[in-house]
Specification:
binds glutamic acid, alpha/beta, 3-stranded antiparallel beta sheet, Rossmann fold, Glutamyl-tRNA Synthetase, domain 3, 3-stranded parallel beta sheet
C-alpha cells in the first residue's frame, strides 16, 4: 500500500514571513492535502541568535491567518517532537557521530581567507568549491592545527553523479565532487549545518514530500547522498519557482512591505493574498479572493510555471 503523503513547512524564522515563503507554503499545503496527506511544521532555527522565539510565534499566527494549517509540529507538538531545530542538537550529534565513525567526515581548519583564495573555483551560484585542502592532513597535522583553531567538519563527497527526478522540474543530475565539493556538516562553533539537519529531520519526521524554492534544487543531490549514507529512504522533491520583482531580483525579506506584518495591516481577509498567489501559481486566470481549501479542486502541478515568476507592478499594486 502506498504510504500516506506527509508534506512539511520548514521555515527559517529569521524575520517575518514573506510573500515568497507563503507561495511555497501554499503549494506544499495544496500538494499534500490534494493527496489526502498531512503537513508537519518544523522551525528551522539552527542559527538561534538570528531566529528569536518571538518570530516563530508570529510565524504560526501568520500561517493560521492564511488558512495554512498543519497536523503536527510547531507549538502543537507531536510524536516526533521537538520540532525546533535548535532543540535537536543531540539528535544531530548522534547521526553525525555515525558518519564520523564510518570515515565520511574530516575536520577542516581553513579560515575564510583561505576558502576564498583567488584560485578557488566558483560555482554557478557564487559559492566557492572547496579545494579539499584539509582532506589529506595526517593525524599529527590535525592535532597540531587543533591547538590553535577549532575546526569545522566536512563531508567527503566522492566523484559520483547523483540523479533524481524532481516532481516539478523533471530529471536532474549533479557530480558531487565537481559541482558541489565537500560540504560543511558542522560549523567550527559547533552548530550543525542545514544540509545535515534537514535530511535527518525530514527522515525522522516521516516526511514523504518536500516542496521548496528552486534555489535549493542544487542542494538536493548532496542531501540525497546523505540520505544514502544514513540509510534513510528519501522523500519526493518538488521545487517551485521563485517570485521576482519587476527588475528581476528575487523578492526577499528586505521587501518589508510584502511581509505578513504589512500585508495583515492592509487586508483583514487573507483570501485576498492567497488569491493573488494562486494567480501567480497559474491556478486562477485572474486574482480572486479564495482560501487554500477553496483552491484544492483547482490545484495541479502541471499548471504551475517552471520559470521564476516576475510579479508585475500591477500585481504588486494589488497587495
Ligand atoms: N528553512 C529553509 C528556508 O526557510 C527551507 C529549507 C527546505 O525547505 O529544505 O528557506
Amino acid at each position: 500500500m502506498a504510504k500516506t503523503v506527509c508534506g512539511r513547512f520548514a521555515p527559517t524564522p529569521s524575520g517575518r514571513m514573506h510573500l515568497g515563503n507563503v507561495f511555497c507554503a501554499l503549494l506544499a499545503w495544496l500538494s499534500a492535502k490534494k493527496q489526502g496527506g498531512s503537513i508537519t511544521l518544523r522551525i528551522e532555527d539552527l542559527d538561534k541568535p538570528r531566529c528569536p522565539d518571538r518570530n516563530a510565534q508570529l510565524l504560526e499566527d501568520d500561517l493560521h491567518w492564511l488558512g495554512l494549517d498543519w497536523d503536527t509540529g510547531g507549538s502543537s507538538g507531536g510524536k516526533d517532537a521537538p520540532y525546533c531545530q535548535s532543540q535537536r542538537f543531540a539528535i544531530y550529534t548522534e547521526y553525525f557521530a555515525r558518519l564520523q565513525k564510518q570515515g565520511f567526515t574530516y575536520p577542516c581548519f581553513c579560515n575564510r581567507a583561505e576558502l576564498h583564495a583567488a584560485q578557488a573555483p566558483h560555482l554557478s551560484d557564487g559559492r566557492v568549491l572547496y579545494a579539499g585542502t584539509c582532506r589529506q592532513l595526517t593525524p599529527a597535522e590535525r592535532q597540531q592545527k587543533a591547538l590553535s583553531r577549532q575546526p569545522s567538519q566536512r563531508l567527503l563527497l566522492p566523484n559520483t553523479t547523483v540523479s533524481f527526478t524532481d516532481g516539478h522540474y523533471g530529471p536532474q543530475q549533479q557530480n558531487l565532487a565537481a559541482e558541489c565539493g565537500d560540504i560543511i556538516l558542522q560549523r567550527s562553533d559547533g552548530v550543525y549545518a542545514y544540509q545535515l539537519a534537514v535530511v535527518i529531520d525530514d527522515a525522522l519526521m516521516g516526511v514523504t514530500e518536500v516542496v521548496r524554492g528552486c534555489d535549493l534544487l542544487s542542494s538536493t543531490p548532496q542531501q540525497l547522498y546523505l540520505y544514502r549514507l544514513l540509510g534513510f529512504a528519501p522523500p519526493r522533491f518538488f521545487h517551485v519557482p521563485l517570485l521576482t520583482a519587476p527588475d528581476g531580483r528575487r523578492l526577499a525579506k528586505r521587501d518589508h512591505d510584502l511581509d505578513l506584518g504589512c500585508l495583515r495591516q492592509r487586508f483583514s481577509d487573507s483570501r485576498h493574498v492567497i488569491g493573488v498567489l494562486a494567480f501567480l501559481a497559474g491556478l486562477l486566470p485572474k486574482p480572486q479572493p479564495l482560501s487554500p481549501a477553496q483552491l484544492l479542486p483547482l490545484f495541479d502541478w502541471q499548471k504551475v510555471p517552471q520559470k521564476n515568476i516576475s510579479v508585475s507592478e500591477e500585481i504588486l499594486n494589488l497587495l
